[in-house]
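Summary of Year 1 activities. Much of the first year was spent building the evaluation harness for sequence design. The harness presents a backbone, in tokenized form, and records the residue chosen at every position. We chose the following record to illustrate the format because it has been used consistently in internal testing since the harness was completed.
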């Protein structure tokens, strides 16, 4: 009897575990798509821009120097980040690629930014270490919104994509909040045949996925995927909604978001002051029933005020327009 109860209990545990596993993991596993049966790149364009192209072997599919769980150091200043070993081999503007092998992927990290000087040093220090261990060909672009209008994360992501791609080509783009620091370097930032949500388990949500269709915090998309959805919506001023809008775009294009399991896709979030909410976000999201074809990269308007190549990143200051213009044009639209 005791034995039977024990067996039944173990069986239930396995079922529950498997269920949780399926819910969380929508990818076929580490290095799932993108590589053919011999481990060659089977997807995307040629994937390396290093100078020594053709002279060194392609990097192994699983980078050899991964550590697994890694510590997150908060309160690192930019100067401190610049004075560590991580800068070795980094080209002005934050570009790096491995010298002993050809990187499999060229990945631009796009970081929307305003008034977060205290988080920038930790981000740079952490991400350069993380990405170098993954043997990627990468660069970090910090896109700052000029002025003090409501923050428009999605417009900044569109600007970052457009500006980075002008000096690319990059195979894929990680749209990355500055306060999201990955805690496990086995969470590989490679391109995949479907868009990837990166910030699956974050410390501010007790390491649980916020909701099934959550696409915020950090995500990764190829150039082709971004073009297919016309980039991000330009209409979200203030906090919230733009990531839900992107989820819809992806679904409209019959793509499916992939995720690594939460035990790898784990992020420490650095605390900051709450942002101003976008009160219209529910309405704007619900109105996205396919209008993404004319709201996004093809309707993006901005002016680059300044591009500065810093030691560990490229800083782009941009004027991205005003929230008031959008408000008045949508009022006019409704009257018709
Ligand atoms: C959601 C926000 C997301 C945000 C997550 C995480 C909305 C609009 C719903 C239609 N979405 O609630 O933008 O990333 O919380 O905190 O508010």
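For this record, the design step produced the sequence shown next.
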């Amino acid at each position: 009897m005791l034995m039977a109860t024990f067996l039944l209990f173990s069986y239930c545990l396995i079922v529950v575990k498997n269920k949780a596993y399926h819910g969380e993991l929508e990818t076929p596993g580490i290095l799932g798509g993108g590589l053919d049966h011999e481990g060659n790149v089977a997807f995307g364009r040629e994937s390396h821009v290093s100078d020594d192209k053709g002279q060194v072997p392609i990097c192994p599919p699983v980078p050899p120097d991964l550590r697994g769980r890694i510590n997150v150091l908060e309160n690192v200043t930019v100067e401190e980040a610049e004075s560590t070993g991580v800068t070795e081999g980094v080209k002005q503007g934050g570009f790096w690629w491995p010298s002993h092998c050809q990187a499999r992927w060229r990945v631009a990290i796009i970081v929307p930014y305003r008034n977060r000087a205290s988080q920038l040093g930790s981000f740079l220090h952490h991400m350069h270490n993380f990405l170098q261990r993954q043997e990627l060909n990468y660069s970090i672009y910090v896109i700052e919104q000029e002025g003090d209008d409501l923050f428009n994360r999605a417009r900044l992501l569109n600007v970052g994509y457009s500006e980075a791609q002008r000096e690319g080509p990059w195979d894929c783009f990680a749209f990355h909040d500055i306060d999201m620091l990955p805690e496990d370097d086995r969470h590989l930032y490679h391109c995949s045949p479907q868009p990837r949500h990166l910030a699956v388990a974050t410390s501010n949500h007790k390491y649980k996925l916020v909701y099934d269709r959550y696409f915020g915090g950090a995500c990764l998309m190829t150039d082709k995927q971004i073009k297919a959805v016309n980039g991000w919506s330009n209409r979200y001023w203030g906090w919230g909604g733009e990531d839900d809008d992107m989820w819809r775009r992806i679904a409209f294009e019959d793509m499916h978001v992939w995720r690594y399991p939460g035990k790898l896709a784990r992020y420490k979030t650095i605390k900051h002051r709450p942002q101003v909410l976008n009160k219209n976000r529910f309405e704007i999201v619900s109105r996205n029933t396919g209008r993404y074809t004319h709201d996004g990269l093809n309707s993006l308007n901005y002016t680059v005020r300044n591009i500065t190549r810093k030691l560990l990143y490229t800083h782009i200051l941009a004027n991205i327009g005003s929230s008031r213009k959008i408000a008045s044009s949508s009022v006019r639209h409704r009257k018709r």
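The first strand starts at residue 106 and ends at 113. Quantitative recovery figures across the full test set are reported in Table 2.
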